[in-house]
Amino acid sequence: MVNPFYKNLRLRTFAAVMLLNFFVILLISIFFQQRSLSFFEREFADTLYEQAKGSGQRVDNGWQSIYQATVHASFDDRLQAMMQEDEIAHSREIAERLRAYKKENPLIDRISLYNPSTHLLIRSDEYQAVQQLDDRGDAWAACIAEQSGRTPLLARDLLGASPKKIYLYNKALRSSDGTFLAWLTVTCSERSLYYEYLAALDQGDRNLACLYTQEGSLLTGSFPGKEAALQQLANKIRENPDGQARLTVEGQDYQAVWLQLPFSQTVFCLLKSQSTLKDQVMQMQLLCILSALVVLLLSAIFLYWISLRLAGPVENLAETMQEAGRGHLDVRAPVHGQDEIAYLSQAFNDMLERMKDLIERLASEREQKKEAELKALQYQIRPHFIYNMLNAIRFAAMMQGARNIGKLLADFVELLRASTNRHGSFVPLSEEIKTLRHYTDLQEFRLMDTFEVTFDLQDEALTCIVPRMILQPLVENSILHGPSEEHPVCHIQVMARCEGGQLWLSVHDDGQGMTDSCMRALEQGEQTASERAHGGLSGIGVHNVVERLHLYYGEQASLRYRSDGHSFTEATLLLPVSRNLSGQEDGGRG
Prior knowledge:
Blueprint: H1 4-74, H2 77-86, H3 91-103, E1 110-115, E2 120-123, E3 130-132, H4 135-144, E4 153-156, E5 165-174, E6 180-189, H5 190-198, E7 207-212, E8 218-221, H6 227-239, E9 243-249, E10 252-260, E11 267-273, H7 274-325, H8 340-376, H9 383-400, H10 405-419, E12 426-428, H11 429-447, E13 451-457, H12 459-462, E14 465-467, H13 472-481, E15 490-499, E16 502-509, H14 516-523, H15 529-534, H16 541-553, E17 558-563, E18 569-576, H17 581-585
Parallel strand pairs: 13-15
Antiparallel strand pairs: 1-2, 1-6, 2-3, 4-5, 5-6, 7-8, 7-11, 9-10, 10-11, 12-14, 15-16, 16-18, 17-18
Helix pairs in contact: 1-7, 7-8, 9-10, 10-11
């Protein structure tokens, strides 16, 4: 239950922080409003200049491609030879060759050869490719003579069916000795170039694009009713071929940039309405408002965290006490600072820790008592194993007409006697092997030939004294876990030998192998999930073998496993050699 005082404190803190945030955001907004317009104007002009630079480069590349086509055609050896031999006789072949050059560049409208001395005009047109000009020839010669260099000439098409504006490049076609043969002219429609490069940039009153000569003459552009803007641009271009300025046309403000193209020496101009800039400023103001809302939201989150720091410790301590009262002793009260609340939280945590330790100690003592009871019964046969064996013997009597029952019962009785012997007793290895044979005989009958056991025993080793039932859990592991789909019959070999004052006992199988983690767990005496699930004769498992080794021999005995994980497993017991049964029965290590 939260005290109303803390609620009021949170409200006061929230109001103070929110008021502070409001004034900070207001000051930032005023400062941003004053500085943003000039900043965006600079960014607007720079962006416009980069756009004009890219668009102008594309226009210049177009001029360059037309100019290169003109130069290449003027140096065509075949054209020179045909014009020098007999231009009339070769006129159709010349027209075909001109059409081939025209097809190489989609911007080219027409390529023509004109000989002023004969007034013969040969064009790349399909219709009337060869014409004899009269007075138009002189006018055409005078027109194309005005073009020189890499700057195209804007002229009126005197040879077309309808008058239109064209750009042209002109080169003299000469023979190998330098004799003038004809004028070679490449033309491009003014509208074609406009729609190719400039039309996409024109957006009514928002964007305007045009092209000037360096003398300020308009080459192309779409400015209906904006002659004043054209004149302003022409004057500024004559003053400086590269620059930018703000223009006012019919009450509308424009930002204009222009630059001279390096190849054609023409001037590309781009105008953008200031309304676009205003729209961007409005967008930034909207973004500023959204940012302010985000700041307020983050401030609210931060304020909530502050309120937790100021008023939360007592609430946390109360909640921790409630959880502890429900029996959850793992909970702990957060401790912040060194004040009185922190002292109470730490003291309560210490009390919970002591209570938990006491409960764990009681649980540990109970577990140890349970383990002691289990160890007292570790050599008793598990009921389910007895039931399995009795059922197996019963079925054998029914199916086999009571044959082998005597042997099975004898093996079972011997195994019962060995498994119920007192805890910690020792026997010669020969007797341990005998007990093991009884066990394997019974398992062979029970599991229907899924394994095969062979023995390789040194005579000297058979007289050594070993703990009772020390090999049975190892062999039982191989019987239960060795067979698999890949190895339906598991071959188990039990070996014993004396070497260097030590007794080596090993159980090797060619079964499905064992993982490293499982081997390490068995070596450390941990009971695996597989042991708990399958059980066995006595349920003591490999972990009990490890415990007895440590109890009887200390560090002088060990159990080691070796396996490749899929084709074999080998368990090796290393014991000190002992042939004194009475000494071992008395207990103690050695």
